[in-house]
Amino acid sequence: xxxxxxxxxxxxxxxxxxxxxxxxxxxxxxxxxxxxxxxxxxxxxxxxxxxxxxxxxxxxxxxxxxxxxxxxxxxxxxxxxxxxxxxxxxxxxxxxxxxxxxxxxxxxxxxxxxxxxxxxxxxxxxxxxxxxxxxxxxxxxxxxxxxxxxxxxxxxxxxxxxxxxxxxxxxxxxxxxxxxxxxxxxxxxxxxxxxxxxxxxxxxxxxxxxxxxxxxxxxxxxxxxxxxxxxxxxxxxxxxxxxxxxxxxxxxxxxxxxxxxxxxxxxxxxxxxxxxxxxxxxxxxxxxxxxxxxxxxxxxxxxxxxxxxxxxxxxxxxxxxxxxxxxxxxxxxxxxxxxxxxxxxxxxxxxxxxxxxxxxxxxxxxxxxxxxxxxxxxxxxxxxxxxxxxxxxxxxxxxxxxxxxxxxxxxxxxxxxxxxxxxxxxxxxxxxx
Length: 433
Ligand code: UDX
Hints:
Layout: E1 2-6, H1 10-21, E2 25-29, H2 33-40, H3 51-60, E3 64-67, H4 70-76, E4 79-82, H5 97-108, E5 114-118, H6 126-137, E6 143-147, H7 157-162, E7 167-170, H8 174-183, H9 185-189, E8 194-197, H10 199-230, H11 234-242, H12 263-276, H13 282-305, E9 314-318, H14 333-343, E10 347-351, H15 356-363, E11 368-369, H16 373-377, E12 382-385, H17 397-403, E13 408-411, H18 418-423, E14 427-429
Parallel strand pairs: 1-2, 1-4, 2-3, 4-5, 5-6, 7-8, 9-10, 9-12, 10-11, 12-13, 13-14
Helix pairs in contact: 1-3, 5-6, 10-12, 10-13, 12-13, 13-14
The structure holds uridine-5'-diphosphate-xylopyranose.
């Protein structure tokens, strides 16, 4: 089976490479020439564990290639996946410009029956819009549009692709279903559940799943904030809650609020979509609000601990990516917190094992970039741990303290044990403990 993947961002690259690993012949295309040039040289534009090896292997074995010739790739392949970005537009909805550009390119190069599989996260109804758009441009066009959402987590995307919890295929065409099943056939061997449904339901599944997970995080963040007021320990609360099989322990870690390229954007998009249709989604609206407040709350914690005024204070920030094992800083709570600290007149020195390059694009010379965690502590009035990288889990506390002006440690990820930190001489604060 021959596949064309339009968009070599995070989702397109992992999916394209994963499908090649399944034995398909995949051409990944992008209009950004530098990105394709990098990939052709064997360089990976993003940091994702395991991806480089998998790309190398599949290129070497002749199943994976990269190109900027999108028209040719469309003409040469039976299945065209769309994995272009769908960022938030100004009103909080999804901006479908890149998607429709790619769709128009498909329409111009439709040289026979094709399956168009939408991987990008798109508002419910988009697959049908895509169908109408192509049908309106090409008379007698033979094609099917399949909604095939992804559920990849950054940092473990390769693993998630190869061992998914489920595969969702949205289309009413028997022919397209057969082709999609064929593409994912290696997953049958490991008994992965397949959910086959119509386009709208498949599109909704993605938003409903992400918004639910976001709600779980906002819920436990609110519980954590209440715990702080009543002297309860949110870790024990979450653990005991999670032991109830109906709840489960996953996604009950309190923190500085969720970030990344999916949850913030998808919760906003579903909220927006519902309101457009005349329904006020109060619960989803609250999830969004709780998350905004949570980020602000972290800044307040630091401010309180350094005596109520951040101006002129040196704050060391550990971690800038939105979660560990990625260099992605999109909607990272750390970026929000750093900006607020700067606005309040603080001096910020930050370290991250992978994302400092990205941080530099945002902050330039406005902050200092440290070479490691200990440099972050140098002369600091407080340290705030924003991302739970493994490197930050067993720091030499005495070394850290020795370098600080005042030993204040705000741990927004609850990595450290409050008692041990106090014994080590820190004024320590976590979330909800
Ligand atoms: C997410 C979904 O998990 C994935 O299925 C979807 O397709 C894309 O969005 P990702 O954004 O890569 O994946 O990261 P995820 O691990 O889900 O974390 C998202 C954010 O929530 C991070 O900022 C993380 O720190 C935060 N989080 C997660 C918590 O604060 N607490 C938790 O218990 C879990």
